[in-house]
Amino acid sequence: MNAPLQIHSRGAAGAGSTWNAESWTFEVVLSAGSGVVRQDARGAYLESLSLSQSWPDRVPLLDGHARASLDDRLGYVDSIHVVGAELRGRAVLSRHNPKSQRIAAEFSDGHFPEISIGYAVKQWSERTNPATKTREKVAVAWDLLEGSLVVIPADPAARVRSTPLEPTLPPAPAPAPTIITPPAPALAERAAINIQIRSIAQVAGLGQPWIDGQIDANATVEAARGAAFAEMQTRTLAATTVRTATIIVDHTDPEVRARAMGEALYMRANPQHTPSDAARPYIGLTISELARDCLRTRGLSTTSLAADGVITRALQSTSDFPMLLADTVGRTLREAYSAAPAGVKRLGRQTTARDFRAKHRIQFSAAPTLEPVNE
Question: Rounded to two decimals, what is the model's pTM?
Answer without folding.
Answer: 0.41
